[in-house]
Amino acid sequence: MFCVEDPSEISVVVVEKASSVRQLIFDVLRTLGVQHIIQFSTAKELLGYLEVEDPNWVILPAMIDDEINALQVLKLICGEPRLKSVRCTLAVDEEEESFLLPTAFELGLMSFHQRSFYRADVESAVEDLFTIARLKDWNAVQISAEYLRRLLDDLSLRHERVIFEKTLLRYYPGSSRQLISLAEAQFLSGKKTEALGILAQLKIIEPKSESAAKRLVNKHCKAGEDQSLSNNPYNVFGLKTVVLIDPDSDMLQFMAELFESVGVKETLSFEGGDEAWSWLSENPEPDLIVQEWRITGVTGPLLIQRIRGAGLLQVPILVTSSLMEQADIPLALEMGIDHVINKPFEASDFLRSVVWVLQQKALPTEARTFETKIRRCIDSGKKEEALRLLGLVQEDPRIPEQKKDLMHAEVCYAHGELPEARRLCSEALSSAESDVNGLNLLAKILIEYKDFESAAVALEQAQKLCPMNVSRLVKMAEVNMEMGNLEGASEHIRVAEGLDSGSPVVQEAKCRVAVESGDVDTAREIFVALDCCAHVVSQMNIRAIALARTGRFEKGIELYEQTLASLPKRMVKERHAVYYNLALAQARYGNYDEALVALKEVEGNLGRVEVKSRSLERKIEASQRSGTRLKFNESSHQEALSNHGENPSGEYQRRTELVISSLETRPGELCCYKIFIQHDFETERCSGLLEKLPHFKTRKGLVKAS
Known about the structure:
Blueprint: E1 11-15, H1 19-31, E2 36-40, H2 43-50, E3 57-61, H3 70-78, E4 87-92, H4 94-97, H5 101-106, E5 111-114, H6 119-135, H7 140-154, H8 158-171, H9 176-188, H10 192-205, H11 210-220, E6 241-245, H12 249-261, E7 266-270, H13 273-280, E8 288-292, H14 300-309, E9 317-321, H15 328-335, E10 339-342, H16 347-362, H17 367-379, H18 383-395, H19 401-414, H20 418-430, H21 436-448, H22 452-465, H23 470-482, H24 486-500, H25 504-517, H26 520-529, H27 534-549, H28 553-566, H29 572-588, H30 592-600, H31 608-626, H32 637-644, H33 649-662, H34 683-689, H35 700-705
Parallel strand pairs: 1-2, 1-3, 3-4, 4-5, 6-7, 6-8, 8-9, 9-10
Helix pairs in contact: 1-6, 8-9, 9-10, 9-11, 10-11, 17-18, 17-19, 18-19, 18-33, 19-20, 20-21, 21-22, 22-23, 23-24, 23-25, 24-25, 25-26, 25-27, 26-28, 27-28, 27-29, 28-29, 29-30, 29-31, 30-31
């Protein structure tokens, strides 16, 4: 991370052929407090250093006539994810070398300055960079963008700047600074109407920016010139669909008009939770949900749980309320809300909250946002993206180590590294106050180890912190079933039903408890009411397999039979699936005659189950003829755990770092790389400088892998 707030903490590499200039830059940096400075005379030496180290900052000349030039260095850096934290500054001869700067920014350049042999010039350039860095809160993307704007304006690349500012707005939606920059670019390109429209929207989002907007208008519009606004406002948030939920119709109208004023085309308004859930459960995921905490029908907390439980994991949720109590906040955060704004609020306060939520989604900076985003990626099956985010977390010195360990544990669990997940999670929980998400994760890990009693304790502690979590109550019921405590399981389901009886998750869990308890009538009644039974049948099958593999074969067979007794006759597809799994269980334990009887029930399916059934039937008959026992490839739970590997944590850490370092650099991670695209300016000449890249092979990863 490039942060010059404490220059003594950053490491700098200075590349310069002239020893006098090299020493000059060294002296200036030392005067400003930089302590860690390495000097090289050629780019070849620099690349050798970068193969094993990743400094914070590299200062180098263009070197367009040398064996290795600056563009080649930048190309190699942006192509090596391990080096995405390296920031580069070019010292260029403005008359002869400025042509390569647009391409350099496309390749991740942070800043540039005039190459000089005078101390005053070097001091001024470095101090200018430090000042911009402070104004931009050490954000390398914003630092780079400021230098890039200067360049595009100097080169009169008006159209390119408009495109760049619009692209950057996608990563900083609603940002007042970014809107000012976009409006300025529109003015410079002659699009005054569009610029005025953006400034009008800026006044709505951030009234304090009015003076800056006026200065921009006065600079680019003549006195008495028409300043009429566009009737088609620019979508400054980049939102297509927003769902609003509030029992107050006036509030709904107020929010809808606000979103319309900032260019959002579609807002859907609902006064109650039932109608909102009906729409959300049947339509594509919206771009934003804004909801009151206290609503009729499905209440606010339960609606959020249903939304996340239904797989709507990426949509940000902004809660508005004057009635949210302190005790509600842990549940709200655990359930995945992104922000809370208290009523009553001004339009600008509300829109600033929307801006914060959208910017955290695009480029997270807060520990809680990273934590939430990592869990959502894992729940969505995006394990590689979760690992990439973990890499950003580990590089961020502002995030507490305990939080880093918990996020690391989440990623370990998702990748099947149970021993390391358990170690990290246990250490994090022992070093800080109880963390609900940490306790949830610990319980999941313990369940994998079949330590149900300890898992139950972890879940109970988490439930005390957040007593309205329906999904956790369901998980507690499942753990009690594993321990044979059906009465306890039923009690947890009863409490969950009291909170949200209409939740499909609760009804499915109630059905599973009823089947296991032998309450066929209740189970059948729920099966009839459920829209889809496949998930319940799948869960019962997993449960039966687990029982059989842990030595409770008879109990597993009984569970299959109770499931069949509970399923209505009309549910043919589901019944066939259960019969096949029952036959498989019987065959696994040598009960071939019973297996063949179960397979007869699958005849006439004409689907995948029929094909699998006939295949199993042929194998059983062949086994009976030969007098040999069928072999199955499934491993036991203990074998599965051994496959995870009780490896030393250092080995896993090395493998994790290797994977993280291999992930492609994304927009927002290396200055304006992949945000700014160079189109026409001197592209042919720059392409020539990028031909035949020098040999470069990172050795840091190779050392760690050994």
